[in-house]
Amino acid sequence: MRLRAVSRTTFMARSAYVVSAEPAPVHMNAPPSVLHGLGAGADRYELVVDAEVGVLLRSQAERGGQPFRVIEVEDFALNEQPDKRLFTSDGLVG
Hints:
Layout: E1 2-11, E2 14-22, H1 36-39, E3 44-50, E4 56-63, E5 66-72
Antiparallel strand pairs: 1-2, 2-3, 3-4, 4-5
């Protein structure tokens, strides 16, 4: 993986870095790519990484300069107490 910081941005009201990532060449005996979930077969990824804690907030997989898979965090919170019902049998159900 070749990473290159491109710029700073704000995403979900948080300071973040935009990072360009290019996958390494695939070898016959190499383990499967950890990037498969972000978009298998991409020749470039644009990543938005939280500047404070380093969490991946957004990824965009591209092939030939065209995006084909975008994954974004919809809700983000740090150091918050979960609802006490979350891990009980009568927990929160959406």
